[in-house]
Design brief:
Length: 196
């Protein structure tokens, strides 16, 4: 940590990411994070009361990185809901592809951490489902979609596109034709949502 930089949660989380990248989650400790920052582990514990709290915070940070961009797509009232839903799903795939491609070590570490702290990914999925639901509700309001329960429809859209956003399928995200595959699934889903 550069001299004069105040030790705060963001600085600690950035250092934690670097430690996870270098050592992986099994070997990364609070002491390693403190060493990377040039401070005592007690200084880290002032901001995060336990290793568990630090890991949970770093997972939340990782998962929320693309949240605002996706929320902006979902909330774009100037785009008709069918195109908005397609754009949201494409943005989700692009964000996942970028994370896996640009930082594979950290992506792998987060997969392990997320499995250990399943409540945090569940909160993240709930937020994503709310975004999809808002697009579907907009489509119901303007008459382009006809579904009885927007929450059920949002879950169906999310589940039907799991190949394009679940880390379990990360190995497929760089395959040729993945975007065309998403387009085909989107066309099918939009046809199912469309008012007749």
């Amino acid at each position: 940590m550069p001299a004069g930089t105040p030790l705060d949660a963001d600085v600690i989380l950035a250092a934690t990411e670097e430690v996870l990248r270098r050592h992986g989650p099994a070997k990364a400790t609070v002491v390693d994070v403190a060493r990377a920052l040039g401070v005592s582990h007690t200084a880290v514990y002032r901001h995060f009361p336990s290793k568990q709290a630090l890991r949970e915070a770093v997972i939340r940070r990782w998962l929320s990185r693309d949240r605002d961009a996706l929320a902006a797509v979902a909330g774009d009232a100037g785009t008709p809901p069918p195109q908005r839903l397609r754009a949201w799903l494409a943005a989700m795939l692009a964000a996942k592809q970028a994370k896996a491609r640009k930082d594979p070590e950290l992506f792998a570490a987060y997969g392990i951490l997320a499995a250990e702290h399943s409540a945090i990914p569940a909160e993240h999925v709930a937020d994503l489902l709310a975004q999809v639901r808002s697009v579907i509700e907009a489509g119901i309001t303007d008459g382009t979609f006809a579904v009885a329960d927007p929450a059920v429809a949002a879950r169906a859209v999310f589940d039907a596109t799991v190949r394009f956003h679940s880390p379990a399928h990360a190995g497929e995200w760089q395959a040729p034709g993945i975007e065309a595959g998403l387009d085909a699934v989107c066309a099918l889903l939009l046809d199912g949502l469309r008012a007749r």
